[in-house]
Amino acid sequence: MTSTDIPVRAAKPIIGGRVGARTELDGRSIILLTANNYLGLAGDDEVIERSCAAARQYGNGSTLNPPLATTSLHEALCDTVARFHSVDSALLFNSCTSANVTVACTLVGKGDRIFSDRLNHASIIDGCRLSAAETLIYNNRDLDHLAALLSQPHDGAKLVITDGIFSMEGDAADLPAMIALCRRHDAIFVVDESHAAGVIGQGGRGTGAVQGCVGEIDLYTGTFSKAFGGFAGGYAAGRADLIRRIHDHGRFFMFTTAMTPASAAGALAAMERVMRDDALVGRLSENTARLRSGLTKIGLRILGENHPITPILVGDEDKAREFSRVLLEEGVYIGAICFPIVPRGEARLRAQPSAAHLAADIDEAVAAIGRAARRVGLIG
């Protein structure tokens, strides 16, 4: 049976409980090393209780479009996001996908240009496709290429958009250099911090905090579904004038139901936790270093820098799927990432440690990965 013959539902492991360091998968307790639950807050008791309390007070859904009415929870979350990123204002969305599409379709239009990194997240790519603006793609993190494109004669508005951390590689964009380019060419600068907010930098403040440029970025987009452990929700945060334009004219903001009060309450609890104490961010950093060191020692090729996203490069797609399957037998789950998510020949397992993992969990996972890699012939 080929991979295309396998029923879609049968190909996915079934989660049987809270997502944490160890999770019930297909009836077995396994080490989960593939989730976006960077800080372990998806299973945090305080976050869950505040979310449940909001559901009991407000019901299952908001049932209202964001411009029509709001709750004190949504307003408090907007204020907290703005303080977290040290910007003027913020708006909430059902997802970061909606935020990215809204930004691309609202801040520029016909006669304008968007400059987008080749490896930007799919939501940014789709936003660019839906925008009436012309999109110019520059090579991944290639600032010379971006500068050349920005220098082309053009009378319309310009918007440069990038992931802060690229989701398939774990590499960071050079934000200070991009800020300088945008100022030189009078371009709006947008950074998607979905894999950075709550994950890296002092206080989990993201790529800008790591690179010393907090307060210099025009607009951030981000999500509550990764480091902040939420069910759903995204945001745009930045200059007051840009947020006002999105509020008044953003179709993907205006013509959709607001994120649920329960989701807003959970996200608010998680953000407040991170802003109150960055111990979880520190533990995540320690676990990341431990995992990367362990995988390097056993001879696997890993990509990226010091971010928790730790891609184990395999290359062949069938071997990557087999590696993931065998690893699950060894008691660790890391999903295989194959075409079309990544180019052909670049299949990988994308390991992602969490602050919820103990050092012993990381060591056990590395040992299991080594055994699985030997079983499928990746290492001797």
Spatially, the strands of the biggest sheet line up as: 3-9-8-7-6-4-5
Mean pLDDT: 94
Q: So how many helices?
A: 13
According to DSSP, the number of beta strands is 13
Structure class: alpha/beta
Measured distance between first and last alpha carbons: 28 Å
How does the major sheet shape up? 7 strands, mixed
Gist of the model:
The protein has 13 helices and 13 strands. It is an alpha/beta fold and 380 residues long. Strand 6, helix 6 (175-184) and strand 7 form a beta-alpha-beta unit.
Give a quick set of tags describing it.
380 residues, alpha/beta, 7-stranded mixed beta sheet, 3-stranded mixed beta sheet, 13 strands
Summarize the structure in words.
The protein has 380 residues and is of the alpha/beta class. The protein has helices spanning 45-58, 72-85, 96-106, 122-130, 143-151, 175-184, 207-210, 240-249, 251-254, 261-276, 279-297, 317-329, 359-375, and strands at 22-25, 28-32, 89-93, 113-117, 134-138, 158-163, 187-192, 219-223, 234-238, 310-315, 332-333, 336-337, 347-351. It is globular and about 60 Å long. The model has no long low-confidence stretch (mean pLDDT 94).
